[in-house]
Design brief:
2% of the residues lie in helices and 52% in strands. It is an all-beta fold. It has one domain: Immunoglobulin-like (Sandwich), CATH 2.60.40. Strand 10 and strand 11 form a beta hairpin. The chain is globular and about 35 Å long. The N terminus and C terminus are likely disordered.
């Protein structure tokens, strides 16, 4: 049976719930990874000004995948984390790549299981490396998008599905557009 690994990228206005200092202050978003305080807002189908790209379309246990978040607008306040779908526990680990002002976050007390901003400087591109769990099986990558509207601010949610074996893993991230 084939499963999925997902990368969810959520972009949310600071007015909603921003953590421009990143690090431990954003750890409260680990787990559910839902942008804070949507007040019942539903997703929209608008195009996102943000993209998440990966450097390969398949992987095996222990492989590394380069993940880049970029946008036509700058952004502040992001959190990137990987989960098995339907679970709130981080899987795999991250290491820092290109881009300044980023830091590893211990989501759910798991070292290097998340990535966030370390300052409130706007970013247009951040690249990190995710290492697949040693127990993972061969995988393929699939991409889906969701868009949320909160008050007068836009919130984007990007879902990259890494498909393999009987597991669905999810990368989650909160991002704030100003």
């Amino acid at each position: 049976m084939v499963g999925f690994l997902c990368l969810l990228l959520s972009l949310t206005a600071l007015q909603v719930e921003g953590f421009s200092g990143g690090g431990s202050s954003v750890a409260s978003q680990c787990g559910s990874m839902l942008p804070g305080n949507f007040h019942g807002s539903t997703g929209q189908s608008s195009s996102s000004p943000y993209t998440v790209t990966v450097n390969q379309t398949t992987y095996q246990p222990g492989d590394t995948i380069q993940v880049t978040l970029s946008g036509t607008f700058t952004y502040k306040g992001f959190l990137l984390e990987a989960h098995e779908e339907g679970q709130n526990t981080a899987v795999g680990t991250f290491s820092l790549g290109s881009g300044t002002g980023i830091v590893l976050v211990p989501c759910n007390k798991i070292a290097a299981s998340g990535v966030s901003q370390s300052n409130n400087q706007p970013k247009s591109s951040v690249t990190v490396t995710w290492t697949a769990p040693a127990s993972a099986s061969l995988g393929n990558i699939v991409v889906n998008w969701q868009h949320y509207k909160c008050s007068n601010h836009s919130s984007y949610s990007n879902n990259h599905s890494f498909k393999y074996n009987n597991h669905i893993y999810s990368f989650y991230s909160n991002h704030h557009r100003f």
